Amino acid sequence: MTSETQSQRLRLGVNIDHVATIRNARGGVHPDVLRAAHLAADAGADGITAHLREDRRHIRDSDIDRLMSEISLPLNLEMAATEEMLAIALRHRPHAACLVPERRQERTTEGGLDVVGGYDHLAPIVGRLNDAGVRVSLFIAPDRAQLDAARRIGAPVVELHTGRYADAENAAELEAELARLTEAAAHAGQIGLECHAGHGLRFDNVVPVAALPQVRELNIGHFLVGEAVFVGLEAAIRQMRALMDQARPAGAHSTGTAAS
């Protein structure tokens, strides 16, 4: 595979949060998130995503320590925009830090980050991460105003929240949400942002999102961990990888900024 083909390949980031959720349900060390990360690498993942929540409900600080020291794949640290999480990110300096909204009472991340409304709070955090050489990503709704704000604030990457698309209850709603994602991905490419996507993606809905030419990376976790109960983690990731490659074969033309 040539370097040009590799640079254009749609990347898969595997989120291992819910391996930790299962572990924490009973305590102890099993199942091991580090083992899950190694299996993901063997199955074709291009990176590992882990969300260190303020309440430590799944990933723990010790997990981040081990992932940083023992895996070869890039680590994407999902984090709230707080001083505590900023200090952790600056200490570890992962490949990427994805800023996400976070509420204690939510089961999972329910929506995108409000970059427009939170600009003054977010700007210094984005700046400090950029200065430390951490690739900053903002997890946002597929909305032009949020994309423009992300560009102004200096984040090189956005991740489009695909939750509304994944939760669509009928064909018309699905079509409308896919149109929003399509428009947002195109706008991201036009203003020089690298575009990622994730949340709620499954075997039955990933292909249309993977086919968007401006999208450079998908981050998928909960579904893969759930599917692993039935077929194993490696098999689930390999099938997701195959669907992504089917949607946009390696070497297909894409627009937007190059991967870092």
TrEMBL record:
Q: In this record, what's one Pfam family? A: PdxJ
User: What keyword terms does UniProt attach to this protein?
Assistant: Cytoplasm, Pyridoxine biosynthesis, Transferase
Tell whether tRNA-binding is among the UniProt keywords: no
GO CC aspect terms: cytosol
- Where, subcellularly, is it found? Cytoplasm
Q: Which InterPro entries match?
A: Aldolase_TIM, PyrdxlP_synth_PdxJ, Pyridoxine-5'_phos_synth
Q: Which residues bind 3-amino-2-oxopropyl phosphate?
A: 15, 26, 200, 221-222
Q: Which GO terms describe its molecular function?
A: pyridoxine 5'-phosphate synthase activity
Gene3D superfamilies, per database record: Aldolase class I
What residues make up the catalytic site?
51 (proton acceptor), 78 (proton acceptor), 199 (proton donor)
Principal location class: cytoplasm
Please give the HAMAP family that the UniProt record associates with this protein.
Answer: PdxJ (MF_00279)
Family note = Belongs to the PNP synthase family.
NCBIfam families per UniProt: pdxJ (TIGR00559), PRK05265.1-2 (NF003624), PRK05265.1-3 (NF003625), PRK05265.1-5 (NF003627)
Question: What quaternary structure, including any partners, is listed in this protein's UniProt entry?
Answer: Homooctamer; tetramer of dimers.
Q: What is this protein called?
A: Pyridoxine 5'-phosphate synthase
Q: Which organism is it from?
A: Nitrospirillum viridazoti CBAmc
Q: Which gene encodes it?
A: pdxJ
